[in-house]
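Methods — Computational structure assignment.
A single polypeptide chain was analysed. Its primary sequence is given first, followed by the predicted tertiary structure written as structure tokens.
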Amino acid sequence: MHPDINIYHEALTESDKAIADTLASLIDKHLPNAESKIWHAHPVWFIDGNPIVGYSKLKDSVRLLFWSGQSFEEPDLLPEGKFMAAEARFTNVNQIQKSDLKRWLNKAAEIQWDYKNIVKRKGKLERLK
């Protein structure tokens, strides 16, 4: 995990830090070849320069975001934004279902939309995998 992500975690409350630590650990475990860094002020993991998964602290929860998550056909991931992203929100570390997260991360590696080139394509997404 990128050292800046540890700095991000240290600024969180104890309960939010527990959520973030668990998410980061599981993401690193199940996406071992992904690059992690702070991107737009939040921890994000990339495969070949394409954002795959990340999380951020919201007012009332920690939001886990999958950039291509709407294509996963997972009822516990809710659509977010106008593109293909989907999210899950956590207020307690015990809400993280490791088997669900593992399945979502496996799908994230297999099902990708090309966010890396979205500006070049003037807002049009194309499926990579």
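Note: The chain has a mean pLDDT of 93.
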